[in-house]
Amino acid sequence: MRYPSKVTPFSKSTLALFPVVLAELEKGDFTPKGLYSKVRRKVGSIEEYLDILDALYALRKIAKLPEGLLHYVE
Predict the structure, then answer these.
(1) Reported pTM
(2) CA–CA distance, 6 with 74 (Å, rounded to integer)
(3) Least buried of 1, 13, 15, 27, by fewest C-beta within 10 Å?
């Protein structure tokens, strides 16, 4: 996970990509693979994508439904 620092500007950090993922989840529930296909051009790599999902889950901004779908938590 890339944190903003003196060397890494906020726009290049992983935190700057949270709104990209959340904007797609606001439209509806997705499987992790389906969501990645929507945001992969904006997210640098699969590792960064997983870091974003981990952080959003820890912050309780997303939840995993029993069907295996990711859900935006308001």
Answers:
(1) 0.91
(2) 32
(3) 27
